[in-house]
From TrEMBL:
<feature type="region of interest" description="Disordered">
    <location>
        <begin position="90"/>
        <end position="109"/>
    </location>
</feature>
<dbReference type="Pfam" id="PF13167">
    <property type="entry name" value="GTP-bdg_N"/>
</dbReference>
<dbReference type="InterPro" id="IPR016496">
    <property type="entry name" value="GTPase_HflX"/>
</dbReference>
<protein>
    <recommendedName>
        <fullName>Hflx-type G domain-containing protein</fullName>
    </recommendedName>
</protein>
<dbReference type="InterPro" id="IPR005225">
    <property type="entry name" value="Small_GTP-bd"/>
</dbReference>
<dbReference type="InterPro" id="IPR042108">
    <property type="entry name" value="GTPase_HflX_N_sf"/>
</dbReference>
<dbReference type="Pfam" id="PF19275">
    <property type="entry name" value="HflX_C"/>
</dbReference>
<keyword id="KW-0460">Magnesium</keyword>
<dbReference type="InterPro" id="IPR032305">
    <property type="entry name" value="GTP-bd_M"/>
</dbReference>
<keyword id="KW-0547">Nucleotide-binding</keyword>
<keyword id="KW-0342">GTP-binding</keyword>
<dbReference type="Pfam" id="PF16360">
    <property type="entry name" value="GTP-bdg_M"/>
</dbReference>
<dbReference type="InterPro" id="IPR025121">
    <property type="entry name" value="GTPase_HflX_N"/>
</dbReference>
<dbReference type="GO" id="GO:0005737">
    <property type="term" value="C:cytoplasm"/>
</dbReference>
<keyword id="KW-0479">Metal-binding</keyword>
<dbReference type="InterPro" id="IPR045498">
    <property type="entry name" value="HflX_C"/>
</dbReference>
<dbReference type="InterPro" id="IPR006073">
    <property type="entry name" value="GTP-bd"/>
</dbReference>
Amino acid sequence: MIFARSCYLIHDPSLPWTLTTKPTKPKSPLALTPRPIANSPPLFISRVLNQETPLSTAPLIHTVEEEEEEEEEEKEEEVYGLVNGVAGTVSVDNNPPVPSTRYKKKKKLDEEDKSIEDRFKLRNGKEVFAEKAYLVGVERKGATVDLFSIEESLKELGQLADTAGLLVVGSTHQKLDTPNPRTYIGSGKVAEIKSAVHALGVETVIFDDELSPGQLRNLEKSFGGDVRVCDRTALILDIFNQRAATHEASLQVALAQREYQLPRLTRMWTHLERQAGGKVKGMGEKQIEVDKRILRNQIGVLKKELESVRKHRKLYRNRRVSVPVPVVSLVGYTNAGKSTLLNQLTGAGVLAEDRLFATLDPTTRRVQMKNGNEFLLTDTVGFIQKLPTTLVAAFRATLEEISESSLVVHVVDISHPLAEQQIDAVNKVLSELDVSSIPKLMVWNKVDKVSDPQKLKLEAENEKDVVCVSALNGDGLQEFCNAVQEKLKDSMVWVEALFPFEKGELLSTIHQVGVVERTEYREDGTLVNAYVPLRFARLLTPLRQQLCKS
Ligand SMILES: Nc1nc2c(ncn2[C@@H]2O[C@H](COP(=O)(O)OP(=O)(O)OP(=O)(O)O)[C@@H](O)[C@H]2O)c(=O)[nH]1
Ligand SMILES: [Mg+2]
């Protein structure tokens, strides 16, 4: 338990709580660092221990009773040693030595050490300590807006916790008309969770919905001890923080974290007042103001830096757009198989794994079809139900790429029992982005996992704009590419142009970027009927005029 809190010593040095003086007389290791739990955002839910070693688990102060107990044990040890000494000469089977209290205690400690040892795990190349987590959800009576049932939502929260490197040891939920403004759940439920938390040695309680700063504070106070409370948003932010690999993704996550943190700063410094016996009332309050200012400054700096990174990326994108190859975006629920599909079609080598939010940064690769046609395929960050608004806002620029594509491909894990709800959740996020006018294609992925793939394929045929694939084994990929080409026509324009022989380069480009329907070789050149991107059609204007003249 002591070292579980060592994480509070592990934090971004730019964060406010590293900037003030430490209390002079610490009572416990916790008091060494202002404890950002009550209302501050739990920036590091999982224990990233590669920067800091855990504090010793040995108790620092021995009580009188403990000393007496130890003396007793020492005496016992002597006797036990003697018995052992004698037993050495006698048959061990006939006289098995009786283990002393100290021996039992040592064995217990060894077992505890082992179970603690087992909780150190590698996550994204970093060693984390799998803290014991307990999940709590609330089902709103008569709510029709929730896509997922409470059990389903808690199961997903468990997956999120596992992705973040936590060890889920239990969960509970409650049906409520309206959440309690003080503690979100009712007082009886708080008491029930408190006993479960203490019985199971839980270190973090995670709520499935976003909690207000006051609710976080009151719940932590109610659970007591070192139990930390956080919500789904903080957990997702933590996963994003662990996964951010590029500069832009790190900036976006840092911005989202600070925006989440800002309203939750209250009372982070009240320990100063407590330690000074309440003589310096207002000290904590002043500190909150200082911290808020620091956070606001950091948010400003991050926004500016993001702006410049984005300008650079936009420039790159514009350069890409000047080559008029159509762009197809893959969107979908996290873990649907978007990256696997991109990898299969392009050999991109993007990380694809059975964890939530494997991808944070968009990756674009060229797909070359057998008939010579090409399109650019972009893999994007996955969506999830109850996606924190701070994250959508922070990732808006990345998601904007979707709104600039010619086709949006919605990848669905059709083998998932909640496929339909996941589709609705994705559509909900898409409706927040400006993509309604972009043609869409749906891909039912993971057909290899369903019990009757043939039946599913027939079902897909009866649906409009749906293709069945298995991104993992490559089944249906040709059909997918054909469907993409067909759908791309929706965002293209129909042209008829005459390519004189000296314009051979343009003629090969039209085969690359457009969908050529008819080619006729004439004396004065090649006559082509095709669907082409608007940008390319404009390049063809002189050739179309040429056709009118001839
Ligand atoms: N059986 C089966 N598994 C698949 C298929 N496609 C993907 N998977 C698996 O599903 C898991 C998730 O795949 P990803 O490609 O990482 O999913 P994603 O949509 O990119 O996920 P995020 O990046 O988290 O949004 C991986 O373990 C894949 O191997 C498929 O067609 N069949
Ligand atoms: Mg991915």
